[in-house]
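input
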Amino acid sequence: MNGLIENIDKLRTTVMAAERIKRNLQIDTDDVVQCCTTQILDGAADIEKRGKNWYVTVNA
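output
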């Protein structure tokens, strides 16, 4: 099983990172973590771990 999905309830970010995510993904939401969690759990995401970071690609 994927480690990111197994620990999805631990997904967090800082305020500055949330603003950067919103800008880079061009999304308008107050809860970036919930938005990303939903996309990851929808099952249409490619998930890759590189070092300590997780990279998620969603074909929307």
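quick obs: Strands lie at 45-50, 53-58.
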